[in-house]
Amino acid sequence: MGLxxxxxxxxFFPLVGxxxxxxxxxxxxxxxxxxxxAELRQRLGLLSAAELAPLAGARALWFHAASVGEVxxxxxxxxxxxxxxxxxxxxxxxxxxxxxxxxxxxxxVDCAALAPLDxxxxxxxxxxxxxxxxxxxxxxxLWPMTLWAARRGGVRIGIANGRLTERAFARYLWLRPxxxxxxxxxxxxxxxxxxxxxxxxxxxLRPAAAAAAGNVKYxxxxxxxxxxxxxxxxxxxxxxxxxxxxxxxxxxxxxxxxLLDAHRLAAGRVPGLRLILxxxxxxxxxxxxxxxxxxxxxxxxxxxxLPFETxxxxxxxxxxxxxxxxxxxxxxxxxxxxxxxxxxHNLLEPALSAVPVLFGPHTESIRVVAExxxxxxxxxxxxxxxxxxxxxxxxxxxxxxxxxAGVQARAAAWRFAGATDRTVEQLRSLIFP
Length: 433
What we know:
Layout lengths: L1 H10 L1 H17 L7 H7 L5 H4 L7 E6 L2 H14 L7 E6 L2 H8 L6 E4 L5 H11 L1 E7 L5 H9 L3 E7 L3 H8 L2 H8 L2 E6 L2 H10 L6 E3 L12 H11 L9 E7 L4 H12 L6 E6 L5 H10 L4 E3 L12 E3 L6 H4 L6 E3 L12 H5 L4 E3 L7 H10 L2 E3 L3 H11 L3 H16 L4 H8 L1 H4 L2
Parallel strand pairs: 1-2, 1-4, 2-3, 4-5, 5-6, 6-7, 8-9, 8-12, 9-11, 10-11, 12-13, 13-14
């Protein structure tokens, strides 16, 4: 049954690929594709000689991540491996161009490319050129032909930072006859929670292969003080001075309107209030700029900061990697993907900078972290513009209240440390065979 389903999947793969592309395009993220000749070559598994050169004569370890968020999960793992003199060459593939570009910027990555299409010819060409000893999938990247071809080619397979939300699990259940024999070939899996472990087991992962190791994204450290000072210095020409500020991070479509309405309401209670707004996907910046203008606010892009005679109301973050250093500028932070049914993004990034965290009710993917932040007083749930504005008025309008909540948020963040060490230990036999 599994092989028949795999054959059917390959026959219908063009339709599957087209559906994925259409979903990206209609989500307003079409610019994320940015496909050219070089990208098409990588999609077909045809890495160039220059791209393969750093791998010559060495054992390669292949990580596959979907996009920027999953690449971020790879960062602490690579940092841990960098301390080893016997580490393998690191190859990272991603589904999106933005993810590939982010992977290229990570220390320790020897080769970063777009993932080959999940069809046998492309996967076989990629494996023949890269010759990886092991493949480690980040989070939920369960591509059937990639799993089958890698195992058939003698590549050892693992999962790092694995997660499977209730919604994703319900979808994957339909594919269980296809996935069960494929997941049976996974040797080691470091999963985020015990609930994730149970869901993977239900799909076919062997109990002996699976362990709940925590979320490596929560092992991130606050940005270095020097980097924070440099970021804050870049804000100086705006003329904000000591004006209170808040940060809205990883916003999704449908959230920016609420955030901007909340800002206008809160600014009526907190004189001089400013906003740093960072959309989850940078290719949406132009769209978000239009929303800011519609709300009667003035904005400037982070990449175009200049002295202003009249200080703008908002800085729109349009550069990857800048946000983590900007949380310290805020008296409070909102984390997106929570006012719309996405499941939520990383709540601990602002918490590590001792900034209290606001988030919406949709926290399915980050439930445990949200609960700890709520219990410690370092976080608060908001449901609309009015409740967000009220929370901002309290924390941004009262520096001492915001500071105390920030200390509690940071204490909550430190509770989640240690996942990287557990993950590397779980995957040790694949990383250092």
